[in-house]
Amino acid sequence: MPTFTCPDLPLDGLLRAAALRDPGGIAVRGAGTALGFGELDALSDRVAAWLERENEGRPGVRIGVACVLDPLFAATYYGTVRSGATAVLVPPQAGEEGLRHVFATAGVEAAFVPARTAGLLARMRGLLPRLRTIVVTGAPDAALPGTVLALRTVLQSAPHAPRSGPCDPASVACVQFTSGTTGRPRGVLLTHRNLVANAKQTALAHRLDRASVTLNHLPLYHAMHLNSAVYAGARQVLCQDPGPFASLRASAEAGATHYYGLPARLHRLAADGPDARTGRAAPAGSRLTAVFSCGPGLRPKAARAVRERLGVPVIQGYGMTELSSLTHCRRPGDHRPGTVGRPVAGTECRLVALDSRVPVEVWATGEVQVKGPQLMAGYLGRERRAARAEEDGWFSTGDVGYLDDDGALCLVDRLAGVPGRGGGNAPRARTGQAAGQAAGQAAGQAAGQAAGQAPRLAGSGRIVAGRPGPVHAVCPCCAGTPVARRVRPGHAAARTATGNAVPEPEPSGTTVPVLPGRCPAPEEAAGQAACPVRGPAVPVTARTPDVRGGPGNFSESVREVVCDAG
User: Fold this and answer.
1) What pLDDT, in 10s, does the model give residues 143-202?
2) What's the rounded Cα separation, in Å, for the pair 69 and 189?
3) Which residue from 32, 48, 230, 485 has the fewest beta carbons nearer than 10 Å?
C-alpha cells in the first residue's frame, strides 16, 4: 500500500491553509451568501474569539453546531474547534427527544442552531441545566426570544482574533452521534487527526482539487464534504431547493464538477421526465465529472438511469461515523456496480471468519475490519477505543461482505446484535419487525459465541446473489449455523458513506446453484432441498420479504428461505 501522510494540522488549520493559498477564492456559496476563503477564515476567528470569552478559556467545552446547509455552518464549525472547544454536531431536523439526548449526553453548554431548533431548546431549558447560551444562525434579532442571541449580535461583540495556542492533533475536535437505528444514538469522539486525515483521503478518492466545484444537494451539511473541499481548495455550492431539476440547473450555472446528492432525490431524477419548468431534459453542465450518491444505497436501475441521463458515472462508497466517515469509494474511472470500491488512501481492509476470527481469502465471506488514521478515539462516556476495536488496531464494523480480486468490497449482511453505526450507514438484512428482537438476538449471539458457536447473521435465512464466491447464508432450522456457498453474478447492493442500501429486484432468469448438502438457493422454487443438519430432504418455501425502502433496511433482493421441518 502506498505511504499515506496525514497533514500535521489541527482541523481548523485546513481552512487557515486554504485562506493563505487563495484568500480571494470562493470557498462556499449558498442562497444569497458567498464567502471567500479569507472571509470564512476571518469569520471563524470571530466565532472562536467569542467562544473563548464565553468559555473563560476552558478547553474542551462542548458546543452544539447544527449541520445546516448554509455557509455559516462552516464558520461556526471551524470557529468552535479553533477556540479549543469541541463541536457537537446537531441534526437540525431533530425533534425534542433527539435534541435532549444529544445535548444531555454530550453536556452541551452553548449552541449555534437555526431558529426552529432554538425554539425547541428554549422550551427545554429546564431539562438541560448545562445549556447556558443559544445562538441563532441566519435570523434577524427581532424574530428571537429574549433568551436567545442572534449570530450577528454575537459577532459584533466578539474580539477580532482568538488567543488560542497550539492544538494537540490527538485531542477530540468533534462529537458526532450515530443514527441509532438499533438503539440510542451514541456519541463518537473524532480527533483533529481523524478528521484531517479523512479530509485528505476523501479529496484524493473524489479527485478534488482547486479547479473543482462541488454541488451539494444534501439536506444536511456533512463535515466530510466540507473538510475535503476545504483541504483541496475547491469551491462549494449549496443547493437548498430539494427539487432534483433545480439542483441540475444550479449545477450547470455553477459549472459544477462534482455533484453530491441524496439517493431519494436521485431516484426522483431517474424516474421523472423532462423538467416541468422548461419541458426539456435538464443537463447538469458540461464540466460535471461524477455524481456521488450520499445516503441510503442507490438502486442499480436508478444509477443506470442517472448515468445515462447525465453522461457521467454514479459513484458510491462505504463508511461510518466511527471512521470519520469514508473508508471505501469507487473511483470515477473505475466504476464497477455491485461494490463499494477499494479502500481510500492510508486505509487497510480485511475480512475475518465469523467463528474463528481468522482472516479469510479473496471471495470468502467474513466480517469487515478496517484500520486507518480515521478510526475514532472512542465513544462518548467511554473515552477509549470501541469494544470492537482489536488490540492491533483493526476495527470490527459488524458488516459482512467479501473482497474481489481487485480488493473491492462487496457487502452482503450485518451481524445480529451489533449496534447500528454511524449516520445510518449500517446495512440491514432484517425487516422492520426484527428490530424488537435485537436485544434477544444480542444475548443469544453472546451465549453462542461463549459456547463456541458461530455468530448469527442479522439476515437469518437469507442469501445474497453477488459476484462468484462463497457467501454465508443461515438455515433457520440449524440454530443459525452459517453455511458457505458459491453464487453466480447478480445485484449486490452498494452502500454509501452515509446510508443504508435499498433493495433492487434481481433480473429475471438469475439463478444460484445449490451445493450438495447445503441450504437451498434463494431463487429456487419451493420444494425439496438440502439442509446441513436435517439432511438432504427438507421441504422449504422461498419467498421474497417486503423490505423495500425505509431507513435501517438493507437487502440485495434476497429471498427468505423458510425451513418447513418440524
Assistant:
1) 666 679 999 999 999 887 777 678 899 999 999 999 876 678 999 999 999 999 999 999
2) 23
3) 32
> Residue 558 in contact with residue 459, Cβ under 8 Å?
yes
**Is the pTM here over 0.70, yes or no?**
yes
Q: Which three cell numbers stand for residue 403?
A: 473482497
Residues in CB range of 3: below 8 A, 6 or more apart: none
User: Do the Cβ atoms of 316 and 427 come closer than 8 Å?
Assistant: no
The C-alpha cell 455533484 sits at 259
Cβ contact 346:372 at 8 Å: yes
Contact 99, 125 (CB under 8 A): no
How would DSSP label each residue in 197-252? HHHHHHHHHHT--TT-EEEEESSS--HHHHHHHHHHT-EEEE-----HHHHHHHHH
pLDDT for 291 equals 94
Say how many residues make up the chain: 566
CA atoms within 13 A on the CB side of 461: 18
With b for 16 or more beta-carbon neighbours within 10 A and e for fewer, the 152-190 pattern comes to: eebbeebeeebebeebebebbbbbbbbbebbeebbbbbb
DSSP string, 179-196: --TTSS--EEEEEHHHHH
Closest CA to 370 of 336, 323, 403, 300: 323
Q: What is the mean pLDDT of the chain?
A: 76
For 553, other C-beta atoms within 10 Å of its C-beta total 23
Find out whether 7 and 196 touch, Cβ atoms under 8 Å: yes
Q: How large is the average pLDDT for residues 251-257?
A: 96
pLDDT tens digit sequence for 44-69 = 999 999 999 999 989 999 999 999 99
Distance from C-alpha of 121 to C-alpha of 145, rounded to nearest angstrom = 11
How confident is the model at residue 223, as a pLDDT? 97
Give every CB contact of residue 126 below 8 A, 6+ residues apart in sequence: none
Q: Tell whether the model's pLDDT for residue 314 goes beyond 60.
A: yes
